[in-house]
Transporter, dicarboxylate/amino acid:cation Na+/H+ symporter family protein
Amino acid sequence: MKAKSIIKSYWDSILLIIGMVAGGIIGVIWGPGASALTPIADVFLNLMFCIVVPLVYVSIVTSIANLKSGKEMSKLMVSMFAVFIITQLIAALLSGGIIGILEPARGAILPSVTEEVEVSDVSFNILSQVTVGDFSLLWSRGSLLALVIFALLSGVALRAVADKAPYVITGLNQLNQVIMKMVAYIMKLGPIGLGAYFAAMIGQFGGSVSGPMAKMVIVTWIYAFIYMFTVGPLFSWIGAGKRGVSQYLKFFLRPAVTALGTCSSAAGVPVNIQVGKEMGISDDVNSVVMPLGCNLHKEGACLIVMITISLECSLLGLNFFDPKMFMTAVAAALIGSMITGAIPTGGNVIIMLVISMFGFPAETIPLIILLHTLVDGPTTMLNVVGDLSSALTIDNRLQSSRTKLQVKGTD
């Protein structure tokens, strides 16, 4: 009976894993021909990308409008940014330390550039990510950070006139329920969509890596999974005790597999919000932390920056553990993880940030882009799952604060 209960709890995650494994096998056997399955993957991914925009906007607006006081909003924001910064700093230091010690890319040599790589059109202008020039541009997954800010303003404004607009709040709450039901329906296609995506990806890149680059990719994948199974529960325990660890281990698989298969933090938002509700995270926290975390909290992006700089140091014969080099790398990891947003060119933005900050030669860009492509899955997985443990911590802090206030009120 217990085994049946466990299988039932993880059934959705098991189906996603089966789909990805089957897709990987098809990719290995079929090779480049597996790209024929790309349209199937695109159907699932496009549905996820379409639902994420209304989900982010409606969930943030309703969560803020339903808050009991402005003081709660302030506490939520302070707690959220504190947790985001601390966890990303730990992720950067830990990732840099482990990758630097193992030095998997030792012996790598700079390849001859056989094709021109266009990254000149990529910008990491912060202003362009937090604002847009036209209202219609808000409703794009490429403008998620701007949409989040607009949703925050909308929620604050709606809360200020809540007594005059009760039907608006009720309507948005009902719309939020409809959107969550749509997410549940879309996720039914997950095993097929992720399987097709994985088959196409393995078929395309399966034979393109060897030598030090292969070691770097393998180490990154292994490290990402070890991090998820150890640091994630540790953060959950620090934030919410044994209950946090239990909840994390029970629910993290579904968003982890979704992120691994889609390589998109944005596609992970609907799943994270759905799972957060099942975990019992309060709607106030769940509906704000998950969308904002998608843009501002990316532990996997910290790993990407550190492995990028480690690879550059191996290629150029530099000392990764030089104090100035290492601390600048940590700073780049924090900045890169918070300003890139969940945008399609996010990886290229990080590349340009690192190249600009360190003055690395442009000849290394093709190799860095290949590396980012091959480790995009596990690093995105850390981005998405990291929001779960952070949300648990933030929710527990706010619940403890509310309990203390209630105790004081009864004294």
